[in-house]
Amino acid sequence: MKLGEELSIHELEKLDFGEDFKLALSRAINGANVYIVGPSGSGKTAMLRKLGLYLTRLGREALYVKLEWVKYGWGLSDYLKRYGDKSRELVGGAAGDIILLDDGELLWSYSSVYRNLVRDLRGRQIAAAFREFDIDTATILLGDGFTIYLQTRQTSAHTAKIPLGLSFLGKTAEITVL
């Protein structure tokens, strides 16, 4: 399975996030911050990028900011100089009025590293993806927002390893009820 940054825009368009995506897009269109929370592999980055792609097509200017790419002391202009082209490639448009913040949990894990970036983000609309979420800290740093919790996606259905109806003394059987 590809990581969210590895998906092409064509592959991104095909992903279906159902009602979660529709709610996130609706809130973002109306100016709300959107926080996408879930474990690794749940599709947070892909949903964040798809959100940016749709917002760009609606005339908004989305900037994708991957916190892992931000170096110590950088502000938003430093990030744009180094990753502006990559951001446009990932969301299909120009950088600007809505910030797509990936790996948002790093803000409170390494607050001194991101101090200048957080300063530059204040007052801007944010859509962010988090592995771990602290609603109080997110509200203080980024403002109130609409939160969506994603589950890990299952890639294949589980099957019963032992035929049903057989008795095994002293053995363990793994059975999944569908």
UniProtKB/TrEMBL annotation:
Name of this chain's protein: AAA ATPase
Gene3D superfamilies documented for this protein: P-loop containing nucleotide triphosphate hydrolases
InterPro entries reported for this sequence: P-loop_NTPase
SUPFAM superfamilies: P-loop containing nucleoside triphosphate hydrolases
Domain of life: Archaea
Organism: Pyrobaculum islandicum (strain DSM 4184 / JCM 9189 / GEO3)
